[in-house]
Specification:
This protein is mostly beta strands. Helices cover 9% and strands 41% of the residues. The chain has 2 helices and 22 strands. The protein has a 5-stranded mixed sheet, with no helix packed on it. It has a 5-stranded mixed sheet with strand order 6-7-8-10-14, with no helix packed on it. A 4-stranded antiparallel sheet has the order 1-22-21-20, with no helix packed on it. Helix 1 (10-28) packs antiparallel against helix 2 (34-44). It starts with 9 loop residues before the first helix and ends in an 11-residue tail after the last strand. Residues 1-21 and 24-49 have low confidence and may be disordered.
C-alpha cells in the first residue's frame, strides 16, 4: 500500500490512508456510481462534497461512450462518440432510451456534440483527435421531421467547415489544438469550443446555421485550465457552462460564465467548480440545461465509473478559487 509522506501533519496522513483505501475499493470492485464512491471518500476525508449530483441512472449500451446532451422540445437527446448515424432520446428520469433516430443518407466519422434551437437539432461531427481531419461538419436536422416511432429515420443537411488557422495536418496528438467536442446555438450562429491538448485552453469559433461550406471565425480564447468536452447555454441565454477534465479524465470541472454581452462569452465573469477532488477516471462528456436552474451531466464508461446520467442544481455549483 502507498504510504503517506511522513512530514505531513497526522491529520493529513490519516485522510491520505483512508483515501487510498477507498480508491482501491473503487478500483477493484465492480464499477460503481462515481457519486456514491466520491461522496464516501469525501465524507471519510472530513469534507462534504460541495457540488451535489444526483445519479439518475446508468446509460444503456449504445451510449457507453455518451458524448453530448441537449434538451429540446422533443426531449433529451444524447449521442455516442462513434461513426453510427444515430442519436437517442432519453427518459430524463431513468436514463433509458425511448427513441432511436437515424440520420439517413449521411456518413459520420466522429460525432461529439449536440445543440439545438426551437426548430433544429445540430449534430457536431467534428471530433478530431489526431488533428488530421479535412471533413469537419455539423448536421442540421429539423425537429418536426422526427417521427414518434421507437425507431425512426430523418434527413439532415450539412454545414461543412474548416479552421483557417490550421495549416499542419500531421501534428503530434499532444500538440493538437483543433479537436472539438463542445457547441452551443445562440442567435443565428453556432459556437464551437475547442479541446486543446497543447495548452489546456479553449478557442471560441463561430459558424452560421445555414448549410454550406465555411471557414470557422475565431472569436476568442479562454484559459479553461483543462480539456473542454461540452458546453451548455441556459434557456435565458445568461449562463454558459463549459465541462471538461484534466489528463487521464481525472478531476472533472465546470466553468460557469455569466455577465457576458451577446455572444462575447469570454467577456463575462468566470467561476470554476471542481466536480471531483480525487484522481478517479470520470470521463464527463455531456452537459445540458433542462431549464435555467437544473443541469444534466453524462459520462462515458471507464475502468472506474460506468456510463451514467447525473442531475444537479445550477445553484450548487461552487467557486473553487480559480475564477476570473
Amino acid at each position: 500500500m502507498t504510504r503517506p509522506a511522513r512530514f505531513l501533519p497526522l491529520g493529513f496522513r490519516i485522510c491520505f490512508v483512508i483515501f487510498v483505501g477507498m480508491r482501491n475499493l473503487l478500483l477493484h470492485a465492480k464499477k460503481l456510481s462515481v457519486t456514491a464512491a466520491a461522496s464516501l471518500v469525501l465524507i471519510f476525508a472530513g469534507k462534504a462534497q460541495e457540488t451535489v449530483l444526483t445519479h439518475v441512472g446508468l446509460l444503456p449500451a449504445p451510449l457507453e461512450e455518451s458524448s453530448g446532451l441537449i434538451f429540446t422540445p422533443r426531449g433529451l437527446f444524447s449521442l455516442a462518440d462513434d461513426m453510427r448515424p444515430e442519436v437517442f432520446i432519453l427518459d430524463p428520469a431513468s436514463a433509458l432510451i425511448v427513441q432511436t433516430v437515424t440520420v439517413k443518407d449521411l456518413k459520420f466519422k466522429d460525432k461529439e456534440a449536440l445543440t439545438a434551437d426551437d426548430e433544429y437539432l445540430y449534430i457536431g461531427d467534428f471530433g478530431n483527435n489526431d488533428g488530421d481531419r479535412k471533413d469537419l461538419k455539423i448536421v442540421k436536422v429539423k425537429l418536426d421531421d422526427i417521427g414518434t416511432d421507437a425507431r425512426t429515420e430523418v434527413s439532415g443537411s450539412v454545414i461543412a467547415f474548416h479552421y483557417p488557422e490550421q495549416t499542419d495536418f500531421n501534428m503530434k496528438k499532444k500538440e493538437n489544438d483543433f479537436d472539438c467536442e463542445a457547441m452551443v446555438a445562440f442567435g443565428d450562429s453556432l459556437y464551437l469550443f475547442t479541446k486543446q491538448r497543447s495548452d489546456h485552453r479553449t478557442t471560441l469559433y463561430a459558424l452560421p446555421k445555414t448549410p454550406g461550406e465555411y471557414p470557422a471565425k475565431k472569436r476568442g480564447v479562454f484559459d479553461s485550465q483543462g480539456r473542454v468536452t461540452d458546453a451548455a447555454l441556459s434557456p435565458d441565454g445568461k449562463t454558459l457552462l463549459l465541462l471538461g477534465y484534466q489528463k487521464k479524465h481525472q478531476f472533472p470541472f465546470v466553468w460557469k460564465i455569466t455577465d457576458f454581452e451577446d455572444a462575447d462569452f469570454f467577456s463575462g465573469r468566470a467561476d470554476y467548480d471542481l466536480l471531483s477532488k480525487f484522481p478517479v477516471d470520470w470521463q464527463t462528456e455531456g452537459l445540458a440545461f433542462k431549464d435555467n436552474e437544473v443541469i444534466f451531466f453524462s459520462c462515458e464508461g471507464s475502468d472506474d465509473v460506468k456510463a451514467g446520467l447525473y442531475r444537479a442544481a445550477l445553484k450548487d455549483l461552487t467557486d473553487d478559487g480559480k475564477g476570473e
